[in-house]
Description:
By secondary structure, this protein is α+β, with helices and mostly antiparallel strands. The chain is 31% helix and 38% strand.
Amino acid sequence: MTEPYFYTTIEKPSTAEFKDRGSKFLAYAFPISSAEDFKQEIQVLKKEHPKAVHFCFAYRIGTDGNNFRSSDDGEPSGSAGKPILGQLDSKGITNVAVVVVRYWGGTLLGVPGLINAYKTATALALQITPIVEKQIEVDYSLEFDYTRMNEVMMILKQFNCAIHSNEMQLFCHIKTGVPKNRLDDVLNRLNDLQTVSVKKIG
Length: 202
């Protein structure tokens, strides 16, 4: 199996609502890059919806397929988190979380009704946000003398590398995300500069 160079994700948050027999399901989809991002987002939603009864969710991070979580948050097992995750996977997206906030409407929906509600709310939220393709990046830390700045920036720009942080004094320190499919080219060019220290992060 060849390693992927791109992944699909969503670019901006979206919200959708689904109602069934008085219960209201508000789905919030948003891009994340870590479990920390997710924790912050769900805390915000819990403050926004103090009267909601359930905050069911699923997220997937990374491209190896191993970093995901789903939660039924007190709903019957398998009736909420799994259908939400199923929608993420049917779209083939990662670095995305969906939280579905439920307001109880007084009527029991039963497990099939819940599965349908969580699945539909999630699908609606994902339908209205653009899905984009992004390059898989490998993070590197670069350290070099200020006089090398232009050459380093030229290489990073030429190969479409992302700049995550940039400290410039007499000695410069840049954290960059190098597109996986251009990794060899970028590393060869940077190593040609000799006085640039290149370290892989993580």
